[in-house]
Amino acid sequence: QVQLVESGGGLVQAGGSLGLSCAASTSTFSMGWYRQAPGKQRELVAVVTGGGNTIYADSVKGRFTISRDYAKNTVDLQMNSLKPEDTAVYYCRATFNYNVYWGQGTQVTVSS
């Protein structure tokens, strides 16, 4: 069992920046961030794969940066040039022993 604890998020004006952090209770294979806006499906934002590759959604490329600290079992998401359409609940996701684990979610709201 893996516990994921998220921090960060909040309210910011368009063009601003926010950071998210997620800490896992143990080492994991992949770690990343997904988001879900009201009335929409949960979607990938960015992930660091088990092989160390990073994958970004096209909508956030060039604006968001994901980073992973293997020693601390954390993954951070730096979000710059935020847009109102980035408003969503952001979830940390990790995989371990072929199981998927989710954090509780943290709200990010970008005002126009």
Characteristic key phrases:
112 residues, 11 strands, 4-stranded antiparallel β-sheet, 0% helix, mainly beta, single chain
Topology, element by element:
Blueprint: E1 4-8, E2 10-13, E3 18-24, E4 30-36, E5 43-48, E6 54-56, E7 64-69, E8 74-79, E9 88-96, E10 99-102, E11 106-111
Parallel strand pairs: 2-11
Antiparallel strand pairs: 1-3, 3-8, 4-5, 4-9, 5-6, 7-8, 9-10, 9-11
Please give a structural write-up.
Helix content is 0%, strand content 56%. It is built from no helices and eleven strands. The strands form two sheets. Strands 2, 4, 5, 6, 9, 10 and 11 form a seven-stranded mixed sheet that branches. The chain has a four-stranded antiparallel sheet with strand order 1-3-8-7, with no helix packed on it. The mean pLDDT is 97.
* Overall body shape: globular
Radius of gyration: 13 Å
Q: What is the SS-derived class?
A: mainly beta
Low-confidence stretches: none
| Major sheet summary line | 7 strands, mixed
What's the total helix number?
Answer: 0
Fraction in helix: under 10%
What is the helix/strand order?
Answer: EEEEEEEEEEE
**Strand segment count:** 11
The oligomeric state of the chains shown is single chain
Query: On the 0-100 scale, what is the average pLDDT?
Result: 97
Compute the separation of the termini in Å. Answer: 40 Å
Strand fraction: over 45%
